[in-house]
């Protein structure tokens, strides 16, 4: 029966109407619970790209695209980015609460003690060409981790899920730094237990056996903020991939490797690399004087050119992460005496034009997190092809938290969408001389 919290589906062909319950969230849009639709009507819904589909119930991250709001477990990203560090954020996303002093010390100690990888991992690297894209390397290495930890691959054992979460969070920086060192032909640097998570990563990236890396607090804080801002983001493409992959019961390492592979795409995590390449192209064509020509190409649908670092499926307002990333950009460039950096000035000019241009305003295309993160990373000395690998490093905790939430949900089932079939109807095979 229809209630004040239900939706009634009626049919123009006189088929009986069907009533579905409406479920409220603690924040954001209600959902129409259509799980009984096929059983009651023999029909599917049709929603390629899942523009109107809630694929799951989650308590981890909330986004209000119209307001440009992002909450991790209820805490605004603006507060977390300023008052917390990445280890606080990992504890929050994984366990639902910010840690107290004792919990933080324990969590940091557990992560720190798992930062080394098995020495055999080095031999995987040798199979790659030196110019292999770091995301090709990361997709391989993360999946390969499952071969080293048979004691933590049972997804249905909460204890094993927790230790694999710690191992993945701890080892991603080590693997990303190894992927980088391999491309430049330098020896790998082992993690050190006396450094913070972000400082450890920076040292593994930039130290050599001949000269240690001098930790710069501004740059380390910037890297930690990049990790915080990229840690989770609701049911984005790579997180949905991880959930779908884990729903088959595969091990956590394989599911996270699937997320790495999905994040690689230029429409998703690959956008920061694509954004910097785009700025480089405009620079090469004449810089700010050529922005107008580039914008004209973007507006020409036939060009296939997009303004990388702009637009978002959910944010139809400024991505709150982009604002924070822009501040970090200023801090890093000032620290390094690069505030006249031509790429940054070009990015600011491009942002100004896009925010005033009717084409972008009418389509609600605002800068997203990727627009400034690439400039910060380039200024720090991170090579452009490594940007998405660092995004994957940061997003690993979000993928794991979402995976754990799904597995712990007694209602979860293996993901198995259906389709609207548009192919050939039944027909018989003819002998080849009659085809
Ligand atoms: C991330 O989902 C997440 O949360 C992702 C992420 C996360 O943290 O996990 O936030 C990380 O992936 C950020 C997004 C990074 N991607 C980019 O910066 C690549 C450039 N952006 C576009 O590819 C695009 O904006 C998407 C893919 C991000 C969103 O695309 P939608 O929601 O599917 O929107 P759409 O493609 O339907 O675009 C609507 C209109 C279209 O024009 P019309 O057909 O209406 O005339 O806007 C246009 C598009 O052509 N458009 C753009 C554009 N993005 C959309 N035009 C020029 N440049 C762009 N960047």
Q: What's the helix and strand layout?
A:
Elements: E1 6-9, E2 18-23, E3 31-32, H1 37-41, E4 61-64, E5 69-72, E6 75-76, H2 77-83, H3 86-95, H4 101-112, H5 121-125, H6 134-144, H7 158-184, H8 197-206, H9 217-229, H10 237-246, H11 252-263, H12 271-284, H13 291-299, H14 320-335, H15 342-356, H16 358-362, H17 369-380, H18 387-408
Helix pairs in contact: 3-18, 6-7, 6-11, 7-8, 7-18, 8-9, 9-14, 9-17, 9-18, 10-11, 10-18, 11-18, 12-15, 12-17, 14-17
The structure holds s-citryldethia Coenzyme A (SDX).
Residues 233, 236, 267-269, 271, 298, 306-314, 363, 365, 368-370 line the site of s-citryldethia Coenzyme A.
Task: Report on this structure.
With 435 residues, the protein is mainly alpha-helical. The protein is 49% helix and 5% strand. The chain has 18 helices and 6 strands. The chain has helices at 37-41, 77-83, 86-95, 101-112, 121-125, 134-144, 158-184, 197-206, 217-229, 237-246, 252-263, 271-284, 291-299, 320-335, 342-356, 358-362, 369-380, 387-408, and strands at residues 6-9, 18-23, 31-32, 61-64, 69-72, 75-76. Strands 1-2-3 form a 3-stranded antiparallel β-sheet. A 3-stranded antiparallel β-sheet has the order 4-5-6. The longest helix is centred in the middle third of the chain and has 27 residues, at 158-184. The mean pLDDT is 94. The structure holds s-citryldethia Coenzyme A.
How large is the share of residues in beta strands?
A: 5-15%
The molecules bound to the chains, other than polymers, are: s-citryldethia Coenzyme A
Number of strands: 6
Overall SS class: mainly alpha
| Main sheet properties | 3 strands, antiparallel
Mean pLDDT, to the nearest integer, reads 94
- Separation of the first and last Cα atoms: 55 Å
Q: Figure out the total of helices.
A: 18
The outline comes out as: globular
User: What percent of residues adopt helix (DSSP H or I)?
Assistant: 40-55%
Low-confidence stretches: none
Main β-sheet, spatial strand arrangement: 1-2-3
The Rg value, from CA coordinates, equals 24 Å
H-E string: EEEHEEEHHHHHHHHHHHHHHHHH
